[in-house]
C-alpha cells in the first residue's frame, strides 16, 4: 500500500472513530441511566404507566422507520402513520380505521372542492381542518357513531386528526401533479405502516417489557442505529434494480448469475453487476450527508444557483423575475403579461412539481401551457400558490421564478416530438460519472421526470452514445420512443464534450460533492443548465444498466489532488476512465502527464 493510500485509510478510520465514539457514549449513558432507574424504582410498571404514550410512540416510530428504511415502504411521513395508529389503539382496528377514513375522506373532498380557488398551503390546510373539526363535532353531538363514544374523547384524536388532514392534503396534491396510480400506491404503503404501528403499540407484552426493563432502552436505540447505518438495500430495491443482478431473488442469494443460469449450468451466463456495484437509496443518503453537508445543500436553491451561473458566464435560462413574497407577485404578473413564452416554476420543489411551461398565446389571449390553456390570472394564482409553499411540503413559503423558455435542439424533437427533454449528468468530486438523456412522453405530460413516465436513455460518458433505454413508470426496456416511434437504441448526443464540461462547471459552482446536473441543448446545439439537484434519483442506473456505487467508490480512492483539477482535464479523465470500464484503480489507466495536464488532444476535444 502506498503512503498516500495508507494515509487515506488512517484518515477514514479516525473519521469513523469520531462518528462512532459519541454514539457509543450515548448508548452507554442510556444503559447506565436505565440500570440506575431499574435499581432505584421498586414498581417500574406502576411508575411508567401514566407515561405509556411515550413508550408507544417510541416503538411505533422504530417500527415505521424499519418499514421504510429496510422494507422500502414509501409511506407519507414517518410519525404520521404512528400518530394515526393511536386511533386504532384507542378504538380498536375496526372503529379506528373508520375514524381515519372518515377524517381522510372529508379532508380529501374539501381539498378537491377548494382546489379551483388555488389557495396557498396555510389557508387550504386551515379550511380542511375547520371542515373536519366541525364534522367530527357533529358526529359526536348527533350520535352518528354512538358505538364510538365510549372509546375516546375529542382530545385523544386531536393530534391524529391534524396529521390525517395533512396526509390527505399531501395525497390530493400528489394526485393533482402525478395522477392517481403513484399516490394510491403510496396511500397503500401508508395504511400498511399504520397497521404495523398499531400492532407494536397494542402489544402489551412488548410495552410491559420496555416499561419494566429500562436497560433495554439502550439496546433498542443501538439496534435501530445499526440497522439504519448498515442497511444497504431496501427489499423493494432488489425488485427495482433486479436486472442488475439477474432478478430480485438472484440479488438476494445468487449475487452474480441468475438462478436459471445456475440451474442450466451455463458456462457463460449474462454478466451482472451485483449488489456491490449498485447504489441503493440508503447508501445514496449517506453520500449526500457526507458530500452535501446541510450548510452547503441549504444554499442550493434554484434562484441562488442561477445567480452564480449567470455571473460566471455558465449558460443557463435567463431569469426574468423572482417573487419571494406575496408583495412581489404584481411585478411578476406584469412581467408575464409582457411575454409570450416563459417558464414559471417553484424555487425549492423537486420532481418537476409546479413547473408550467408557456409556449405561446392563443387567439383569445390565454396562454398555451403544459397545463392546458391558462389565463394570466390563472398563472398569477399559480405563482401565488408557489410563494405560499404549495410545493415545498411543510414549508409555508417558497420563491416563484419566471425564466426564459429554452427551445430544445431539433435533434431532441426528432426523438420525442416535444416537451422539455434534457441530459442528466451525475457529478462526483467534480468529475462526471454517469449520464442519461430523459425524453418526455405523453404519459409524462411533456416533463422529463422518470417517475412521471419519461424515458431514460443511458449514455456513455466516453462518447455520449446511447447504451440502454428504460421507462421506469412501466418497468420496461425500450428500443423506440413510445409516442414517436423514433429509434432510441442508437442515439449520439451532439456537442458531448461541451455538455460534460458545462455539467462539471455547474457542479463546481454549487459546491456540492455529489449532484445531478440537468442540461439541455438549445436551438443552436449549445448546452444550457436547467438546474443542479442535491438529491438526484437512482433511476439512471436502470437507464445505463450500470451501478453508480462502483464508480463512486473508485473515485473516492483518488488522492485529494484530483479535487484541484481543471474542469476540462477532469472531463477528459472521466472519458478515459469510462472507455476503460471504470476500474477499481483509476490511476492505473492514466499517465502522470494526463493527470498533470499534458492530455492528448483526442481526449479533450473529441465531440462524439
From TrEMBL:
One Pfam family, short name: ATPgrasp_ST
Organism domain of life: Archaea
Keyword Cytoplasm appears in the UniProt entry: no
Claim: ATP-binding is one of the keywords in the record: yes
Span of domain ATP-grasp: 306-573
Coiled-coil ranges per UniProt: none
Keywords: ATP-binding, Membrane, Nucleotide-binding, Transmembrane, Transmembrane helix
PROSITE patterns in UniProt: ATP_GRASP (PS50975)
Record-annotated membrane-spanning stretches: 20-41, 53-71, 83-113, 125-145, 151-168, 180-200, 206-230
Xref: InterPro entries: 7TM_transglut (IPR025840), ATP-grasp (IPR011761), RimK-rel_E_lig_ATP-grasp (IPR039523)
PANTHER family: BETA-CITRYLGLUTAMATE SYNTHASE B-RELATED (PTHR21621:SF0), RIBOSOMAL PROTEIN S6 MODIFICATION PROTEIN (PTHR21621)
Name this polypeptide is given: ATP-grasp domain-containing protein
Amino acid at each position: 500500500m502506498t503512503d498516500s493510500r495508507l494515509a487515506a485509510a488512517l484518515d477514514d478510520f479516525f473519521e469513523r472513530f469520531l462518528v462512532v465514539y459519541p454514539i457509543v457514549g450515548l448508548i452507554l449513558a442510556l444503559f447506565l441511566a436505565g440500570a440506575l432507574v431499574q435499581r432505584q424504582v421498586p414498581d417500574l410498571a406502576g411508575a411508567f404507566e401514566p407515561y405509556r404514550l411515550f413508550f408507544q410512540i417510541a416503538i411505533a416510530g422504530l417500527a415505521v422507520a424499519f418499514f421504510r428504511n429496510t422494507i422500502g415502504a414509501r409511506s407519507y411521513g414517518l410519525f404520521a402513520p404512528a400518530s394515526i395508529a393511536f386511533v386504532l389503539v384507542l378504538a380498536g382496528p375496526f372503529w379506528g380505521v373508520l375514524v381515519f377514513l372518515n377524517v381522510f375522506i372529508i379532508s380529501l373532498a374539501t381539498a378537491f372542492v377548494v382546489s379551483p380557488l388555488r389557495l396557498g398551503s396555510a389557508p387550504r390546510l386551515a379550511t380542511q381542518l375547520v371542515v373536519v373539526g366541525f364534522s367530527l363535532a357533529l358526529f359526536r353531538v348527533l350520535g352518528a357513531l354512538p358505538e364510538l363514544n365510549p372509546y375516546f374523547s375529542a382530545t385523544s384524536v386531536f393530534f391524529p386528526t391534524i396529521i390525517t388532514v395533512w396526509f390527505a392534503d399531501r395525497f390530493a396534491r400528489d394526485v393533482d401533479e402525478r395522477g392517481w396510480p403513484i399516490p394510491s400506491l403510496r396511500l397503500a404503503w401508508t395504511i400498511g405502516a399504520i397497521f404495523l404501528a398499531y400492532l407494536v403499540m397494542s402489544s402489551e407484552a412488548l410495552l410491559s417489557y420496555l416499561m419494566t426493563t429500562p436497560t433495554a432502552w439502550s439496546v433498542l436505540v443501538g439496534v435501530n442505529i445499526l440497522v439504519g447505518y448498515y442497511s444497504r438495500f431496501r427489499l423493494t430495491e432488489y425488485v427495482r434494480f433486479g436486472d442488475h443482478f439477474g432478478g430480485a431473488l438472484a440479488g438476494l442469494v445468487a449475487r452474480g448469475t441468475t438462478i436459471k443460469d445456475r440451474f442450466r449450468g451455463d458456462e457463460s451466463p449474462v454478466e451482472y453487476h451485483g449488489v456491490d456495484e449498485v447504489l441503493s437509496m440508503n447508501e445514496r443518503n449517506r453520500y449526500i450527508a457526507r458530500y452535501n453537508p446541510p450548510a452547503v445543500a441549504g444554499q442550493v436553491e434554484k434562484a441562488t444557483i442561477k445567480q452564480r451561473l449567470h455571473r460566471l458566464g455558465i449558460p443557463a435560462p435567463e431569469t426574468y423575475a423572482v417573487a419571494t413574497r406575496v408583495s412581489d407577485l404584481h411585478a411578476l404578473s406584469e412581467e408575464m403579461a409582457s411575454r409570450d413564452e416563459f417558464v414559471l416554476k417553484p424555487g425549492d420543489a423537486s420532481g418537476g412539481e409546479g413547473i408550467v411551461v408557456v409556449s405561446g398565446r392563443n387567439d383569445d389571449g390565454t396562454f398555451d401551457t403544459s397545463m392546458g390553456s391558462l389565463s394570466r390570472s390563472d398563472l398569477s394564482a399559480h405563482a401565488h400558490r408557489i410563494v405560499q409553499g404549495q410545493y415545498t411540503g411543510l414549508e409555508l413559503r417558497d420563491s416563484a421564478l419566471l425564466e426564459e423558455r429554452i427551445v430544445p435542439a431539433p435533434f431532441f424533437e426528432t426523438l420525442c416530438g416535444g416537451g422539455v427533454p434534457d441530459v442528466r449528468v451525475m457529478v462526483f468530486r467534480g468529475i462526471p460519472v454517469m449520464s442519461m438523456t430523459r425524453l418526455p412522453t405523453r404519459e409524462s405530460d411533456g416533463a422529463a421526470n422518470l417517475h412521471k413516465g419519461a424515458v431514460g436513455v443511458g449514455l456513455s460518458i466516453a462518447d455520449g452514445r446511447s447504451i440502454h433505454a428504460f421507462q421506469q413508470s412501466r418497468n420496461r426496456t425500450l428500443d423506440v420512443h413510445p409516442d414517436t416511434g423514433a429509434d432510441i437504441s442508437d442515439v449520439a448526443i451532439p456537442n458531448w464534450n461541451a455538455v460534460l464540461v458545462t455539467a462539471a462547471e455547474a457542479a463546481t459552482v454549487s459546491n456540492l460533492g455529489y449532484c445531478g446536473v440537468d442540461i439541455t441543448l438549445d436551438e443552436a446545439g449549445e448546452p444550457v443548465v436547467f438546474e443542479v439537484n442535491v438529491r438526484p434519483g437512482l433511476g439512471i442506473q436502470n437507464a445505463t444498466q450500470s451501478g453508480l456505487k462502483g464508480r463512486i467508490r473508485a473515485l473516492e480512492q483518488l488522492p485529494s489532488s484530483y479535487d484541484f483539477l481543471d474542469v476540462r482535464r477532469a472531463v477528459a479523465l472521466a472519458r478515459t476512465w469510462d472507455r476503460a470500464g471504470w476500474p477499481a484503480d483509476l490511476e492505473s489507466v492514466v499517465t502522470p502527464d494526463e493527470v498533470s495536464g499534458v492530455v492528448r488532444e483526442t481526449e479533450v476535444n473529441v465531440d462524439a
